[in-house]
Amino acid sequence: MRAAVVQINSGADRARNLEVAGDLVRAAAAERAEFIVLPEKWPLLADGQTLSEGAESLEGEAISAARGWASELGVHLLAGSFTRSTGGMPTNSSVLISPTGEIVATYDKIHMFDVEAGGVEYRESDHETAGDTITAAYLGGQRLGMTICYDLRFPELYRALLDLGATLYSVPSAFTAATGKDHWEVLLRARAIENQAFVLAANQVGTASPSYDSWGHSMIVGPWGEVLAEIDSGEGFACADLDFEQQAEIRAKLPAVRHRRTHLFKEGTPNGS
What we know:
alpha+beta; Nitrilase/N-carbamoyl-D-aminoacid amidohydrolase
């Protein structure tokens, strides 16, 4: 399977964001990508109030456009994430779309980014509701574990997705420059190595109002932990071939995922004091 990660500098101009995303999806498909991943908040990246006011349903402009691109190009498309209207507080939702334009799966971001980074305080929980469902979906004979940005710091989620059969993970992100310079690649490669899986991380890049500064460096990481493709700065995309036969060989020769003694961790019975 040939895959691509798309990197965008989204902002509050929805029309511009959709135009750039569409152009980059088409360009990646022209490079024979069969599975394309867009970043977090690709249709609209702005302050919490603007995001809430601009929330859309699955039938809205952004996902309708993404479904059109997928069917037009005959590709699997991970429509990054968008602010989804729910009737109450919105969710940060990732959508997997089939080559016929059908919605295969939707994942609502579980871990809210309520942190201080680079002198900026982020409070996602003030304007978004956390999801409560772990989501894995079939993708061209493989199993995709769906995550979003801050989820990357919680390896237990990736283990749970591994137990659901994940052979690859999607990580649409708006990972900050303040944390990204030290943590982004390290965490992506760690999740790939420990789960012996492909990790496809499409990140935002550059600045957006009011105080977003995203790290970029979108990349595809292989199950041995090697960076297969990367775009460091600017808008664009990176492609790589995902060799699932090689992945199976890695899992067979170094069977760490089979050596897990999960019953010991689930019992929670400490020994000693």
